[in-house]
């Protein structure tokens, strides 16, 4: 009986214990659901995080996007306002009653973050030591520069086995702490001439530990005149900077050298966040950079104590629209008069700031630094040279606060302002015939051609005409969106037989590989612009060709242009042109013009009608059919366009044969082409002409006609009268 009671009490006790365990497990497995708190935030106040990407800056496969960011735990909803729906954002946060647990979790995450930072720092140190252990590539031409081993490795990887002339002259001076003014022809390696000393200084110092609340200190500020040049400079610097190892990428370790590109046309909010995180090097255009630095006291303080100040293509930045912001940035880097007068700073708390502002190096680089080349030739009168109040290069250099008492000037520009591998030619023709001569040149000498025009309206007029003539063409000017500009520039770089119609936005510093031809659709207004335009070709000792299209009213401007270059206009040879082929091409161009004229008029008329309908709708007015336009007239225009397009299609399908070629028998005629066809030397489009480079064709025709004056193809020829 006792044993049975004991068994009963034991089972009862076990039941209670199991019940307690069940309740305990249920409490631990299913916590009580608690309310989620949400806070209202503006778009810029959200917790944005940078997305890791293989390419940090430059023109890449993402269409020119410099940085991608993402954010988690955000709800988007739309609120009705008098102006319509407006997007609002809610940030999801944890409830207050879980504050102790959250604090514990945050402590755990902070510890984890510290561990990861220590691992990243240790990996950086380990990788740095590994770089020192690895054999430095043998680059005897660079041995005297004493650059960091990782820079030599990156130069070797890109095939830069020897420095260029401007690099040989300026790098020893820059590495020795001197201020340098470098003048060298386009495509001579000026970007690396100022970038390598900056990278060497950063890599020679101990790595900066980037932690929360501590950002990188700005060491170099590089100012360029155009957005495209800024992106290109960033791309070249990143190519010479050390790459992150797989271990560093896995640990999300920051790069050894951080670079930020600040240009217009991009999101200013993203660029502000980039600056808040800090960067070792900033490459910027003057307008956007001053816009951001004027509202950021911390950044302004860093700019005042920057270690390197670089002005790339300095002569362009003194032109209208650039110098106002540039002057403010320069004054920000200048020392106060008290610091200039006392080279030995007093023992105060800001000794460090004084010393940093006293050791700043200044680099000024450009292809031209002659203020005479920048004169507007249309306003220049040779009888009485007037002194202008405009800013010149001398004024710019006088405004710079060089820490070096005697900055070194390295001038390697050729005397005649021409690269030895560059060949130039000209065509004198009527203004109305320029389209046909351009079309002839693009067909006769296919390749990558850069056509410069003096106005955006000219680009908008010529682009549809050349597209109707089935040429691969892209425009580039300042009124285009930045993303589209980068996209067209990238397309031009990747294609082989194509045309880029551009204003002088593309005349400075852009390193487009293998540009075969530069064509001046109008005579440039200054010799400085002419030199820089031609500098887009014949880069890095490659051959290049330049063509000037000169109308009768531009001949005076052409003479002044070459006089300013200390040359004579008759030194430039005329372009050889096949007159019979040119006449056939004029018919194509004329039909394309008619099509474009009708289509442009229809587009403008539709735009006006849309504006009228929107205005009538806003005023609640009904419009009659007569006020909206006649539908019959539109149908008639459509029929005209279709008929002209059929005519143009027929003209484009007809073969283009030079004079003397037999259409029936290739072995007959005054110009047999059998041998050329067998050797593969015949032109694909213009039958009867050989495949030849423009510079070789002009040089050959020039030798054959030496001592003779070539009849200009653009001038009307007098026909002999019958006796």
Protein topology:
Elements: H1 2-29, E1 37-41, E2 49-50, E3 69-70, E4 74-81, E5 84-93, H2 99-133, H3 149-157, H4 165-175, E6 180-183, H5 190-204, E7 220-223, H6 227-240, H7 246-250, E8 259-262, H8 268-277, E9 281-284, H9 286-293, H10 297-304, E10 308-312, H11 323-333, H12 337-341, H13 351-358, E11 361-366, H14 393-399, E12 408-411, E13 422-428, H15 434-444, E14 448-452, H16 456-468, E15 473-476, H17 482-494, E16 498-502, E17 517-520, H18 527-534, E18 544-550, H19 555-564, E19 573-574, H20 579-619, H21 625-628, H22 631-653, E20 656-657, H23 674-679, E21 686-687, H24 694-704
Helix pairs in contact: 4-5, 5-6, 15-20, 16-20, 20-22
Task: Kindly list the characteristics that best describe this protein.
single chain; 723 residues; alpha/beta; Rossmann fold; seven-stranded parallel β-sheet; 24 helices; globular
């Amino acid at each position: 009986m006792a044993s049975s009671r004991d068994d009963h009490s034991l089972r009862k006790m076990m039941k209670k214990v199991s019940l307690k365990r069940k309740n305990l497990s249920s409490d631990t497995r299913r916590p009580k659901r608690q309310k989620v708190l949400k806070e209202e935030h503006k778009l810029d106040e959200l917790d944005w995080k940078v997305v890791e990407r293989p390419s940090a800056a430059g023109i890449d496969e993402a269409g020119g996007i410099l940085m991608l960011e993402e954010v988690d735990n955000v709800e988007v909803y739309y609120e009705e306002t008098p102006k319509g729906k407006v997007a609002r954002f809610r940030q999801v946060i944890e409830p207050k009653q879980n504050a102790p647990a959250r604090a514990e979790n945050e402590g755990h995450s902070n510890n984890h973050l510290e561990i990861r930072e220590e691992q990243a720092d240790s990996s950086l140190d380990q990788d740095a030591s590994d770089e020192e252990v690895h054999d430095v590539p043998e680059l005897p031409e660079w041995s005297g520069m004493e650059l960091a081993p990782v820079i030599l490795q990156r130069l070797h990887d890109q095939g830069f086995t020897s420095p260029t002339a401007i690099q040989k002259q300026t790098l020893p001076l820059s590495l020795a702490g001197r201020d340098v003014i470098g003048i060298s022809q386009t495509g001579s390696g000026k970007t690396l001439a100022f970038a390598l000393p900056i990278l060497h200084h950063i890599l020679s110092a101990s790595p900066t530990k980037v932690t929360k609340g501590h950002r990188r200190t700005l060491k170099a500020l590089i100012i360029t005149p155009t957005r495209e040049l800024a992106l290109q400079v960033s791309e070249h610097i990143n190519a010479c900077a050390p790459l992150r190892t797989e271990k560093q990428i896995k640990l999300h370790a920051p790069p050894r050298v951080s670079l930020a590109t600040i240009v217009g046309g991009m999101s200013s909010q993203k660029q502000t966040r980039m600056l808040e995180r800090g960067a070792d090097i900033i490459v910027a255009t003057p307008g956007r950079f001053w816009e951001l630095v004027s509202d950021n006291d911390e950044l302004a303080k860093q700019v005042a104590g920057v270690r390197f100040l670089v002005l790339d293509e300095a002569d362009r930045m003194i032109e209208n629209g650039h110098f106002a912001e540039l002057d403010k940035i320069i004054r920000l880097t200048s020392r106060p008069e008290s610091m200039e007068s006392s080279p030995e700073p007093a023992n105060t708390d800001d000794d460090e700031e004084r010393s940093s502002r006293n050791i700043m190096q200044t680099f000024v680089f450009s292809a031209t630094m002659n203020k005479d080349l920048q004169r507007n030739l249309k306003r220049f009168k040779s009888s009485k040279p007037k002194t202008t109040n405009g800013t010149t290069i001398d004024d710019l250099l006088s405004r710079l606060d060089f820490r070096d008492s005697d900055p070194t000037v390295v001038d390697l520009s050729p005397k005649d302002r021409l690269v030895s591998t560059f060949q130039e030619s000209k065509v004198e023709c009527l203004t109305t015939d320029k389209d046909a001569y351009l079309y002839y040149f693009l067909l006769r000498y296919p390749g990558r051609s850069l056509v410069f025009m003096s106005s955006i309206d000219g680009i908008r007029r010529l682009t549809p005409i050349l597209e109707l003539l089935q040429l691969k063409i892209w425009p580039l000017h300042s009124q285009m969106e930045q993303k589209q500009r980068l996209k067209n520039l990238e397309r031009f770089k990747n294609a082989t037989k194509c045309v880029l119609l551009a204003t002088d936005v593309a005349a400075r510093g852009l390193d487009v590989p293998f540009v075969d031809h530069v064509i001046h659709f109008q005579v440039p207004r200054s010799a400085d612009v002419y030199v820089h335009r031609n500098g887009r070709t014949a880069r890095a000792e490659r051959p290049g060709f330049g063509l000037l299209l000169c109308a009768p009213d531009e001949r005076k401007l052409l003479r002044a242009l070459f006089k300013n270059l200390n040359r004579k206009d008759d030194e430039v040879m005329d372009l050889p042109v096949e007159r019979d082929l040119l006449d056939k091409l004029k018919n194509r161009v004329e039909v394309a013009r008619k099509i474009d004229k009708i289509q442009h008029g229809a587009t403008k008329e539709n735009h006006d009608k849309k504006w009228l309908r929107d205005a009538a709708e806003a005023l609640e007015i009904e419009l009659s059919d007569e006020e909206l336009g006649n539908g019959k007239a539109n149908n008639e225009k459509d029929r005209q366009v279709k008929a002209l397009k059929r005519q143009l299609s027929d003209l484009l399908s007809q073969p283009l044969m030079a004079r003397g070629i037999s259409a029936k028998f290739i072995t007959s005629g005054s110009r047999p082409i059998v041998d050329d066809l067998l050797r593969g030397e015949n032109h694909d489009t213009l039958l009867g002409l050989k495949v030849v480079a423009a510079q070789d064709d002009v040089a050959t025709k020039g030798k054959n006609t030496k001592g003779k004056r070539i009849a200009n193809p653009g001038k009307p020829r007098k026909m002999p009268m019958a006796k």
